[in-house]
Amino acid sequence: MIVDDEIHVLTHITAEHRICNLMFILHMSDIFVLHVGPYRKPSPGMWRYVVEKGNGGVTVDLSDSLYVGDAAGRVAGWQPGKKKDFACSDRLFALNVGM
Description:
Number of strands: 3
CATH class: Alpha Beta
Radius of gyration: 16 Å
Largest sheet: 3 strands, antiparallel
Structural class: alpha+beta
Shape: globular
CATH architecture: 3-Layer(aba) Sandwich
Strand content: 5-15%
CATH topology: Rossmann fold
Number of helices: 3
Number of domains: 1
């Protein structure tokens, strides 16, 4: 399915068949953004789409939500032997959606 020509929802007919089957069993979805625009992190457009149309009618409770990402903008050495993060888009995205 294509939404606004920028959001592509992964389906069971793709090469990631096993992942999709697991996602189906767990009632999960995965959305890919292929172009820079309002749906790409750190912009909150993707979040708004999921909350308004892509969550099966389930209300999102931000106080009971958790966002996991690997682009927090941490500097080199934030933990012994660790390199700096490649970006800070996950941290900014979490801030933009109010987490």
